[in-house]
Amino acid sequence: MQRVFVLGSDRKPLDPCHPARARKLLKQRRAAVFRRYPFTIILKDRTAAESVTHPHRLKVDPGSKTTGLAVVQEEIHAVVWAAELCHRGDVVAAQMKARAALRRGRRHRKCRYRPARYNNRKREQGWLTPCMRSRVENVMTWVERLRRYVPVAALSLELATRKRWRTQRSAASNTNRESCTGTRFASTCWRNGAASASTVARGTSRWK
Fold it and tell me: Is 4-88+128-159 in CATH node 3.30.420?
């Protein structure tokens, strides 16, 4: 069950509470709604110095389309809040293509000449593609946002590099190549990287 984020009267984060507890505080007018999503309440009669807080860990599972976020209380190892963050990579790529098409069309219209500028741009060190930059900044925005509402003491991030994915894919492709024994079908497996075992067996018996 999703917990409700709680802030003290000094806007410092406290431990998340159960939704029933939040409803009771709101009904007694001891708290007010601070934010709709993620749902956060702010206490009127207590500060962070007057409360006991426990350390929480923010866990991030990055992905190309969706990134998973989870807040875990360290002492009891319980998930108090979780969400999926959908990225705008496809939208950013489509907008970049539309902009490029408009610029190309401008160069062929009967107006002032607009020279191509793709060859005189210098990329700074650590440059990221617009899709990747949108993804990284989206995750960073939510990490900073959650740190304002939860007493986060640690951050866990799953590292899944693209290089490792390529290595696994090339290893699987090499396995498929070694499993092909027929001369004609071996060339097919080399190009496509995959073939069914029955097809390879039929090719081996036919072309011996």
Answer: yes
Kind and range of the H or E run holding 19: helix 19-27
Domain borders along the chain are: 4-88+128-159, 165-206
DSSP state letters, 86-102: E--HHHHHHHHHHHHHH
Strands 56-61 and 66-73: antiparallel
pTM above 0.85, yes or no: no
Sheet bearing 4-7, strands edge to edge: 13-17, 4-7, 40-43, 31-35
The whole-angstrom separation of Cα 157 and Cα 139 is 11
Q: What is the pLDDT of residues 134-176, one digit of tens each?
A: 999 999 999 999 999 999 999 998 876 655 445 555 555 554 4
Average pLDDT over residues 7-24: 94
